[in-house]
């Protein structure tokens, strides 16, 4: 699959997940999710470009590059205090 298609699918899943789970105090979980997604996208890029070293992946694909060049959706790391309600 071309990389723009992969990134579009990842962003769609992230936005859907956030719409469903982004309520109350979930800031810690959102930070964990953000780190996990960044690492998985970086791993995908390393495999795609045949880079074996994890540290080389961090050097070649820093977080700012994932967001600016590849268009990764930036997960908000703070959640507002909303009540969960079935009709929203």
Outline the fold blueprint.
Layout (H helix, E strand, L loop, with lengths): L2 H19 L5 H22 L5 H7 L2 H6 L20
Give a quick precis of the structure:
Helix content is 61%, strand content 0%. The protein has 88 residues and is mainly α.
Describe the structure.
With 88 residues, the chain is mainly alpha-helical. 61% of the residues lie in helices and 0% in strands. It contains 4 helices and no strands. It has helices at 3-21, 27-48, 54-60, 63-68. 6% of the residues are buried. The mean pLDDT is 87.
Strand content: under 5%
Amino- and carboxy-terminal Cα gap: 35 Å
What's the gyration radius in Å?
15 Å
Element pattern in H and E: HHHH
Number of strands: 0
Could you name the ranges where pLDDT drops below 50 across 5 or more consecutive residues? Answer: none
SS-based class: mainly alpha
Give the biggest beta sheet: none
Q: How many distinct helices? A: 4
List keywords for this structure.
single chain, 88 residues, mainly alpha, 61% helix
């Amino acid at each position: 699959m071309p990389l723009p298609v992969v990134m579009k699918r990842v962003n769609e899943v992230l936005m859907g997940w956030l719409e469903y789970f982004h309520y109350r105090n979930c800031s810690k979980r959102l930070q964990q999710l953000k780190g996990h997604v960044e690492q998985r996208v970086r791993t995908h890029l390393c495999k795609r470009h045949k880079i074996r070293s994890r540290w080389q992946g961090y050097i070649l694909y820093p977080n700012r590059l994932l967001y600016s060049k590849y268009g990764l959706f930036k997960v908000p790391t703070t959640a507002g205090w909303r009540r969960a309600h079935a009709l929203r």
